[in-house]
Amino acid sequence: MNSVQFRLLRIAWIGKVVFMSADRLRILSINVWTGLDYQGVWRLGDCEGPEHRELRFQALLRGVRELQPDVIGINEANPLPAYAHRLARELEYDVYAHVAIGGIRLGSLGLPINLREGDAILARRGLDLRPLGSYRLTGGPRSNLATFQLGDSTQILGAEITHAGRIVGLYLTHWQSALHNADRERAHAWHRQGHFTDAALKRALAAIDKADAIRTRELQRSWHFMNASGTKNRAMVLMGDFNATFADPQLAELGTRLVPVLRSESEDARHTWDPTHNTNHIRFYNWNADGLLASGVADSYKMQAPDAKAEDSDAILKRLRIADAGRAASIDHIFIDPESADNVTKAGRALDKVDSVTGIHASDHYGVYADLQW
């Protein structure tokens, strides 16, 4: 048993221990959802409209105020910097935000006109939030001033705080949304059933291999940035929407270097992507019983289960992506460095209940939180 495995076992029962010698540090990570369908050139399709988006923002505020985190990491904040600055102002937190995806843009001008998406780290005032910068994992050049991208782009942000006399490194990332190794089995099954031609199966497997290679790059570059930035000999937290589970080799490898705060929980208790119960999935994605989109997010995503031999490789890949996204999964995570893992006193899913005022969930993701005490 290595040191990381030992600390995983400790986290299973460490919540019973109360540390009275230091203040609690509560960390929240949540993808707040742009509400966009990412279809279009001039303007991306808007699934929900401004009224519903504002209801979700208010639900997010109420949920965060109830949880009272000291640190918040948010993904899919759009538009930046306005979204992150508004959230920080409402909560009275300090904030560091950086654009990840903006299309082709210079300042406020660019296409798509409604895409200026990114990530942000917020910290309660008094923790002395100190940005360490951002680091591109995939995609084209991006900064808060300009972006030049013709596709997806991912990044990692870094910052430090001082809590109870201890420096804590905070890292927030958002990895690509793509096919997973588990999709190989589905692709082969559909091929055996006659829904995939040999050529389509070959292309599907190549797409899975490519996605796997990109996740490996994201892991390697994330780890490089974490070790190359900030103060040495500090506590370290990595959080965000990884779009990956521990069935993916990259997350499994990361789990040998850092300690996941929720690994000891049951699978259902860890799901942060929940097509069955999340109100935003039910209203805007509209998954059917087979885990496929019947209607909702965008007409281009409407797809029935394969019922005939398909020659169109693009349709095959779309079917795989939709089937993959239609499954509940644990894709949002918080990791702690092994030396600090014993200081995790509590961890769980957050913002997974409907808002008491609006009756909706704050995002299409649930959040994850962890308490640390020294």
Q: What's the number of structural domains?
A: 1
Tell me the CATH topology: Deoxyribonuclease I, Chain A
* Reported CATH architecture: 4-Layer Sandwich
Biggest sheet architecture: 6 strands, mixed
Give the integer mean of the pLDDT values: 88
Q: Please give the count of helices.
A: 9
User: CATH class, please?
Assistant: Alpha Beta
Explain the layout of strands and helices.
Elements: H1 3-14, E1 24-31, H2 49-67, E2 71-77, H3 82-91, E3 93-101, E4 104-106, E5 109-111, E6 117-124, E7 130-138, E8 146-148, E9 154-163, E10 166-174, H4 182-192, H5 198-228, E11 235-241, H6 249-257, E12 259-260, H7 267-270, H8 279-285, H9 313-325, E13 332-336, E14 344-350, E15 367-373
Parallel strand pairs: 1-2, 10-11
Antiparallel strand pairs: 1-15, 2-6, 3-6, 4-5, 4-8, 7-9, 9-10, 11-13, 12-13, 14-15
Helix pairs in contact: 4-5, 5-6, 5-9
